[in-house]
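Final report, Chapter 2: Outcomes

The project's central promise was a pipeline that accepts a single protein chain and returns its three-dimensional structure in a standardized token representation, suitable for archiving and comparison. That pipeline is now operational. To close this chapter, we reproduce one record exactly as it appears in the project archive, with the input sequence first and the structure output second.
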Amino acid sequence: MARETVEFEDFHTQVAVRVKGFRPVVQRPHLLEGKAGPAIGQKFVLDANELILGRGDKATLPLDSEEVSRQHAKLTRNEGEYTIEDLGSRNGIVLNGLKVHSAILRDGDQVQLGDVVLAYREGT
């Protein structure tokens, strides 16, 4: 069965009017808030596609605790959601009371890295 092919020399899209009911996707602000340990009371705005949590110089979200590895965990944003992944840390990641290697974070999740407990917030 032969397929018909069409060639386009020049293809342009123009938007002249707003479509009723259409709303562009707006990136919601995400936040980690210190709930226990040395980070208590601190707020970390998550505003990059990749962030490293740890106590080392290369950490983009520094956590001042000896129980946190230099590069403890990585946060990765994909389509408006953050995933947390353990980077081979000594104490691992505890998410809502369960030890995990990686997970997609949801609003209200409690993330524990060593003695640091952080609450994950979306849209705050």
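Archive annotation: The chain has a mean pLDDT of 85.
This record, like all others produced under the grant, will remain available to the consortium after the project formally closes.
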